[in-house]
Amino acid sequence: MNASPSRRKVRRPNLKSGVYTLKKAVAVLGSRALPSTRTALGRELQAWRGALVADLGGPDAVSTQQAALIDLCVRTKLQVDSIDAYILSLPALVDKRHRRVWPVVKDRQSLVNQLQSLLRDLG
Hints:
Elements: H1 19-29, H2 40-55, H3 64-89, E1 94-95, E2 100-101, H4 103-122
Antiparallel strand pairs: 1-2
């Protein structure tokens, strides 16, 4: 009896957004995960942080709690901006085979809700 050769399973190329990798890096490294101000993204995030601080009355008027919330806002904004860039590179927001929205779109929405809540807490 000849044994039939086993079929080799072909891996499908899954779309990888890097959302969870970015979330883990930010959780582990904290503010060190943010890009340096030598990069365009780093300068943009630093400018946004400065605008938030200015809206709250300047660096002298910001409490420790507000500073912590500002740090969380900046990290969350980095994640939302990264997901937005990935989503815009997709050919469609819907998985046509399964007739549903890509999971990264739902992840983005939850991050946007989190950012909105943080900004609401800041005032």
